Amino acid sequence: MKGMEEMEHRISRGFTERPASGGRILYWMQASVRVRDNLALALALDEARERRLPLDVLFCLDARYPEANERSFAFLLDGLADASRGLEALGLSLTVALSAADRAVAAAGERAAAVFFDEGYLPFARSQRADIAARLPCPVITVADNVSMPPSLVSAKEEWSAATLRAKLMRLVSLEGSLPQSRPLEPPLRGAPRPGESIAESLFAAGIRVLERRPGRDTLESLGVDSSVAATGEIGGEAAAWDRWEEFRDERLASYDSARNDPNIAGCSGLSPALHFGHISPLSIVRDLKARGLWRAPASFRAAGADPASKFLDELLVRRELSINFVLHNRRIDSWDCLPPWARATLERHRADGRSASYSLEEFESAATHERAWNAAQRELMATGRMHGHMRMYWGKKILEWSADPGEAYRIALLLNNKYALDGRDPNSYAGVAWCFGKHDRPWGERAVYGTVRSMVESGLRRKFDLDAYVRRWGA
């Protein structure tokens, strides 16, 4: 299968009854900042060639985007620079509007025959896309990207845990022909007639500025973005993401199952920020591993599998898409009200329990607790935009233990994660914080403060790795 037929199950056509009479095809790139394995871009190119129309690609860079700051913008701009070069190789250009998307996409889409979106999964992104689609005068096609399977095909409800989602997802992923094949992108037809006004001119007429040179970190200062969280030295973008993936695949994947829980060694892939910003597609990784014969779905579909590649794919697909299922079906993800009833009830019963310590947001943020291990994790996050997954679990559990009440603890954990983490403001962020409070987990033995929510203690860290070495590394 090729083209639209190949991708049919990934498409939601909003407002298709509208006439398609405009003079261009518009792709609003937002969640998939890449060229390789960009499903929405591939379909937009197909449509442009079929209609013999030009294709324009638009990205909206909004300095007021919720919780955005210099750190996240720098990583994003690396990706936009790569995407701009990749599009130029196809004879296309990337227009970057310095505006909220609702105004910019509406203005750019006024003369479009069709507009393609890549899907967003957080509530703000979904609401924004729905509002923009309602304002456009032409057909709107939304493509479920950055997932192995469209979430609506996997499950129509909020799943209880990874175990309940795994069987449904892996059964679909394992079906022959279920994943779209990667194919070379064909440039638009040469000499396709253009509408009388470019999208840059349409944006200018609406009072919207555009970036007048190729995006990059050198444009940061002019954007007026929040500079309270400095950029890290880590490079983003499609090229860096592929370098990171290939290095992990060739040198560290074989030891992933034994090395991933030790923050003193580079046992994890480190791909989470690249996946968050859409610099690499999970489909690319799945295809790459399948082509090399490195993965087979577990026969029962109920376990992660015994080999390292299967364990990695369980994290990449099952855990990540469980997070997407969570934010799609739970309307209270920004508060502890999102937790399952058993977790809320047990935490409420233990709300008045005495705490061994109690800290404010400011004390947590400045890594000023009594415990050196926790302080080290917070300093790692602030310095690098990353925190090892095992330490992030411990970090969140201790915020719960050392806060006045669970609601305040949830607010603090989510705020700090989204502010400092390169992969913050992601479904994984919300699900990861919620897991620390009992989401996607089961009741454990009862104890003070936690009730039956799973706890973590420093001695448990010491049994798994050299905690003192980790603490020394981060200067706690």
Structure characteristics:
alpha/beta; single chain; DNA Cyclobutane Dipyrimidine Photolyase, subunit A, domain 3; Rossmann fold; disordered N terminus; 476 residues; six-stranded mixed β-sheet; 22 helices
Note down, in words, how this protein is organized.
With 476 residues, the chain is an alpha/beta fold. Among the domains are: 3-146 and 188-212, 3-Layer(aba) Sandwich (Rossmann fold), CATH 3.40.50.620; 333-473, DNA Cyclobutane Dipyrimidine Photolyase, subunit A, domain 3, CATH 1.10.579. It has 22 helices and six strands. A six-stranded mixed beta sheet has the order 1-6-5-2-3-4, sandwiched between helices. Helix 5 (123-135) links the parallel strand 5 and strand 6 (140-143). The longest helix is centred in the last third of the chain and has 22 residues, at 308-329. The protein is globular. The model is unreliable at 1-7 (pLDDT under 50).
Helix content: 40-55%
Estimate what percentage of residues fall within beta strands: 5-15%
How many individual helices? 22
Major β-sheet annotation: 6 strands, mixed
Please identify which CATH superfamily of one domain we are dealing with. Answer: HUPs
Summary, kept brief:
By secondary structure, this protein is α/β, with parallel strands linked by helices. It is built from 22 helices and 6 strands.
